[in-house]
Amino acid sequence: MREQIEILASLQNVDREIKEKNGAKQVLLEEIRKREDELKMKRNAVTQLRAEWKEKDKLRQEKEHLLQDEGRKTMEKRMRMNRIKNIRELQALQHEVDQIKQANSQIEEELIGILEDLEARASMLKEKDEEISGLEQAWGGQKAGLEARVAEIDKEVAQTSAGRQTIAAQLNGDLIQRYEMIFSRRGGMAVVAISDGICQGCFMNIPPQLSNEIRKSERLHLCPSCHRILYYKPTVSNDKQI
After folding, report:
1. Chain mean pLDDT for the chain
2. How is the beta sheet containing 229-232 ordered, strand by strand?
């Protein structure tokens, strides 16, 4: 059993290395996702801003067309005024012209406000476009580097996993299943040594009788507290005692 547990300890070192690499990979992938999401949000904001600008510009065009129409009406009424001899009819027509001028003045003020708003939005759009362009350019290089590192980790994990298979092939099937269950439940530490009668996984005292049996390594023993697989790894000084 001592030999099997020592192999398990070797397997655990490999599994911990794989776990660490996969963890680093997930950090990189999360960084890529986060940065992509941030960029996407900025692009969406610009798209929304551009849509608002177009809607505002459409309103500008409508106002300008309205002004042109009202201008033609005013011109026609003034031409009619030159032909009218009746003073009452002339006054009525003049009143209509004055009302159109007043309405046009209101439209012109609204149009000026729309043009100022369009100018401000155009300036903001230009600023946002430049910001996104700069971010995309900078992120493009960083993303390529992160993706290259992810591919590198995948390659390293594949190589380490191949070595793991060689080690795992030396273990009893039931033993490795038990190990893998504990490994997943105990944060990647399934096999631990005892030192001075203390489990190095949970740092709880091991009963003396159990500690003696672990030293013999005749069968599998679990920590009574954390249920990790225990083994005895003698120190130099203890070797002399043995």
Report:
1. 91
2. 198-199, 191-195, 229-232
DSSP state letter for 203: -
More confident residue, 142 or 234: 142
Residue pair 206/197 in contact by the 8 Å Cβ criterion: yes
Contacts of 117 (CB under 8 A, 6+ apart): 56
Q: How far are the Cα atoms of 8, 73, 205, 215, 225 from residue 197, in angstroms, in the given order?
A: 21, 104, 6, 10, 13
More confident residue, 241 or 227: 227
Cα–Cα distance for residue pair 227/69, rounded to 1 Å: 88
Q: Give the burial string for 42-78 (b: 16+ CB within 10 Å, else e).
A: eeeebeebeeebeeebeeeeebeeebeeeeeebeeee
Which one is predicted more confidently, 235 or 27?
A: 27
Interacting residues of 7 by C-beta distance below 8 A, sequence separation 6+: 167, 170, 171
Token pair in block for residue 203: 């740092």
Distance CA 121, CA 43 (A): 16
Q: Give Cβ neighbours of residue 30 (< 8 Å, ≥ 6 apart).
A: none
Ramachandran region of residue 138, left (φ > 0), alpha (ψ -120 to 50) or beta?
alpha
Angle (nearest 5°) at CA 73 between 65 and 87: 160
Looking up tokens 């106002």 gives 63
Q: Which of 205, 167, 209 is nearest to 18 (CA)?
A: 167
Contacts of residue 110, defined as CB under 8 A and 6 or more positions apart, other chains included, come to 63
* pTM for this entry: 0.75
